[in-house]
Amino acid sequence: AQSVTQLDSQVPVFEEAPVELRCNYSSSVSVYLFWYVQYPNQGLQLLLKYLSGSTLVKGINGFEAEFNKSQTSFHLRKPSVHISDTAEYFCAVSEGAGGTSYGKLTFGQGTILTVHP
Amino acid sequence: AAGVIQSPRHLIKEKRETATLKCYPIPRHDTVYWYQQGPGQDPQFLISFYEKMQSDKGSIPDRFSAQQFSDYHSELNMSSLELGDSALYFCASSFRRANTGELFFGEGSRLTVL
User: Fold this and answer.
1) Residue A39 has pLDDT above 70, yes or no
2) Residues B19, A93, A115, A79: is their CA dihedral positive or negative?
3) Is the model more confident about A74 or about A41?
4) Which of A99, B71, B79, B85 is the most buried (most CB within 10 A)?
5) pLDDT the model gives residue A102
6) d(CA A107, CA B76)
7) Interface residues of chain B, partner chain A, Cβ below 8 Å
8) Is B101 in contact with A96 (Cβ distance < 8 A)?
9) Pairing between strand B104-105 and B109-113?
10) What is the pLDDT of residue A97?
11) Is A111 in contact with A6 (CB distance < 8 Å)?
12) Chain-wide mean pLDDT for chain A?
């Protein structure tokens, strides 16, 4: 079984400042890692994913994340945020290739990012 | 590009009533997943189907059932509704054979139980 911990429930930040949303996971098997964004009253949109290969992955809207296997972390970063980035962000994990629960996502508790002008 | 379609988008029911949610996956996707997101909560996995067979089961109450039909659309049936069933229900689909692990989510169906 996997679990995901998002270390901050809320992150307030000013426009054009950098931001980091933290995510740690635990799993006894290899995993795929994801970040999803949810705007109010909307569905979940994939920001980026790590399956294998380079540990630094780039996603949409200028976001990137780094997979750190030794620290079991997958923190999300953006060098300069915009007002439109205000949303809730979910880190998620699933079993990697060959797993018996393919595609079943375990989500973290979510981090509400609020960008102030 | 076609996305995952869910209907209805909003549904209001009374306690002890029955509700049915429908999901139409992206064409050619072979796997459908259902998630429940309570107010202020993270999405919780309910159940999934691969090629019309149940492939995994999560925290789905016995009062709920689901199936995937020959055209790959899926329905989530919820009976004896309780106040605690009020939530946003997401359907997601994927093409398992592509092995990208990526799920594509619909906009969700918001169920309110009064």
Assistant:
1) yes
2) negative
3) A74
4) B85
5) 66
6) 21
7) 31, 33, 35, 41-45, 48, 55-56, 58, 90, 92, 94, 96, 99-108
8) yes
9) unpaired
10) 63
11) yes
12) 91
Contact A56, A66 (CB under 8 A): yes
Distances (CA, A) of A32 to A45, A62, A82, B29: 16, 21, 28, 19
Lowest mean pLDDT among A34-38, A39-43, B28-32, B79-83: A39-43
Q: Report how far residue B19's alpha carbon sits from residue A105's, in angstroms, rounded to the nearest whole number.
A: 25
Q: Which SS3 state, helix, strand or coil, does residue B23 take?
A: strand
Neighbours of A80 (CB within 10 A): 11
Residue entry with tokens 């995937």? B68
Q: How far is the C-alpha of B112 from the C-alpha of B10, rounded, in Å?
A: 8
CA distance A74 to A59: 13
Closest CA to B50 of B33, B75, B71, B26: B33
Find chain B residues with C-beta within 8 A of A34's C-beta.
Answer: 101-102
Length of chain B in residues, anyone? 114
Question: For residue range B59-87, what is the model confidence (pLDDT) as tens digits?
Answer: 899 999 999 999 999 999 999 999 999 99
A4, A66 in Cβ contact below 8 A?
no
Whole-number pLDDT of residue A98: 60
Rounded (5°) CA angle B4-B9-B13: 135
Per-residue pLDDT tens for B22-67? 999 999 898 999 999 999 899 999 999 998 899 889 989 999 999 9
User: With an 8 Å Cβ cutoff, are B43 and A44 in contact?
Assistant: yes
